[in-house]
Specification:
Shape: globular
Radius of gyration: 28 Å
Mean pLDDT: 84
CATH topology of the largest domain: Rossmann fold
CATH superfamily of the largest domain: P-loop containing nucleotide triphosphate hydrolases
Strand order of the largest sheet: 2-1-3-6-7
CATH class of the largest domain: Alpha Beta
Helix content: 40-55%
Low-confidence stretches: 384-406
């Protein structure tokens, strides 16, 4: 039998929670103080913990901090006074799984406990399913993975911030797949793509005859996401009138269909995303501050591709393999020159733009090989690298890149075997000379070359330089 720990100084609340949890086949241990709760955690292992905010010798936030430090695998939920949004937000930010307000609504409590038990046996550092969509091992991507793994175990609203094309929806899907709601629907919606006059109907549904054109009852997005996750992409595009209605639905966990008098309870987790600065939108009066605080409990920042450019080779391999799998066949080879061009490109459209460029090149390339001209990038699109030994210096300057800058003759290309092989030889020579000049200090060599440490490590491995 699974076990639950209830910490509350009110006997009536402890009795109500014990009866409810017993009905869910849970063995319940109760404690009336923070100290008694901590002692109970030392004596036994639990599958879920419920704690009141106000305790005689402390508060529930202290217990949450203790659980996060000592028992990170244990889902703990906060019991708060009705309408105390600030405390609930603090609890979620500090690692609480969820919260429930007094007077306790038993259906809401049962749903909370049911979701918490799904996570009871999961490893707290386990990566959510769907992480195969996150290609690359750069430090920003590794950090992003760790953030997703943490927030996936919570029910807290998450705001995903990042430029267009950086992968915000992939982040949202990974959070959903790694959490307790993975078996329930994931419903994405682009808030900027819905006409203002249809928003209320789209979000909350309507009943037949409620307005012209309402020929039958319709479920809204909240109902479609029941038990799962509603992902509000580009939430900053919502008009103020709709922001008010969305705020009420999130706070009260109920909706009202257009034309209907009664309210319907809903259980959804809200994830949102935007490429705008929401704080600036609030300051400008275009976004409600109260809604901002409700959706912005936890923020995840998705880096632009230029901040993890060392992942471009791995991303290119991933996309080309996917394209070839879709049509059946082997993926084409991306030439060294084409890869070098991609690594110098700024990618204002981020990973989505890289995907589109490679898909076009995949379609246009010949002989299963993607060359620079297949990328269809203009020379003005390529960022000029900072001066480094890879760039030409004045004649006789002794710059180690002087020979590399000279255009190869046909005889040199034939001798090397191909243009790519000739470029590899030049790159190898530049790297070896720079490493010798820095006494094989890779960090110093990378700095001289104007590249990152990870990039030089990748190049040394690719070229077989030991």
């Amino acid at each position: 039998m699974r076990k639950a720990l209830v910490i509350d100084d009110e006997p009536d609340i402890r009795e109500l929670l014990t009866i409810t949890l017993n009905q869910l086949d849970l063995r319940v241990t109760t404690a009336a103080s923070l100290r008694d709760g901590i002692d109970a955690l030392k004596r036994d292992a639990y599958d879920v913990c419920l704690t009141d905010m106000r305790l005689p010798d402390g508060d529930g936030l202290e217990l949450i901090d203790h659980v996060q430090l000592r028992y990170p695998e244990l889902p703990v939920a906060m019991i708060t006074a009705y309408g105390n949004t600030e405390i609930a937000v603090q609890a979620l930010q500090r690692g609480a799984f969820d919260f429930v307000s007094k007077p306790i609504q038993l259906p809401r409590l049962r749903t909370l406990v049911h979701n918490a038990l799904k996570l009871a046996n999961a490893h707290p550092n386990a990566e959510p399913e769907g992480f195969q969509d996150f290609v690359g091992e750069s430090l920003p991507i590794q950090y992003l993975r760790r953030q997703i793994a943490r927030v996936a175990r919570s029910q807290a609203p998450v705001c995903i911030r990042g430029p267009s094309g950086s992968g915000k929806e992939i982040v949202a899907r990974s959070i959903h797949r790694g959490g307790a709601r993975a078996d329930a629907p994931f419903v994405p919606v682009n808030c900027g793509a819905i006409p203002a006059e249809l928003m209320e109907s789209e979000f909350f549904g309507h009943i037949k005859g409620s307005f012209t054109g309402a020929h039958q009852d319709k479920r809204g997005l909240f109902e479609m996401a029941e038990g799962g996750t509603l992902f509000l992409d580009e939430i900053a595009d919502l008009p103020l009138a709709m922001q008010v209605k969305l705020l009420r639905a999130i706070q009260e966990k109920t909706i009202r269909r257009v034309g209907e008098g009664s309210e319907i309870p809903v259980d959804v987790r809200i994830l949102s995303a935007t490429h705008r600065d929401l704080e600036q939108e609030v300051a400008a009066g275009r976004f409600r501050q109260d809604l901002y605080y409700r959706i912005h409990v936890i923020e995840i920042a998705v880096p632009p591709l230029r901040e993890h450019a060392e992942d471009i080779p791995a991303l290119a391999d991933h996309f080309l393999k996917r394209f070839s799998d879709e049509v059946g066949g082997e993926p084409p080879v991306l030439s060294a020159a084409a890869l070098a061009v991609l690594e110098q490109y700024d990618f204002p459209g981020n990973v989505r733009e890289l995907e589109n460029i490679l898909e076009r090149a995949f379609t246009l390339c010949e002989n299963q090989r993607i060359e620079v001209h297949d990328l269809r990038l203009m020379p003005t699109d390529i960022a000029s690298p900072t001066p480094s030994p890879l760039q030409p210096g004045p004649a006789g300057s002794g710059n180690v890149g002087e020979n590399a800058a000279a255009l190869p003759t046909d005889a040199e290309i034939v001798a090397a075997g191909s243009l790519d092989a000739w470029l590899d030889n030049i790159e190898r020579a530049v790297l070896e000379r720079t490493l010798m000049a820095t006494r094989w200090n890779r960090t110093a060599a990378a700095e001289r070359l104007g590249i990152t440490f990870r990039q030089i490590r990748y190049k040394l491995k690719k070229l077989g330089i030991d």
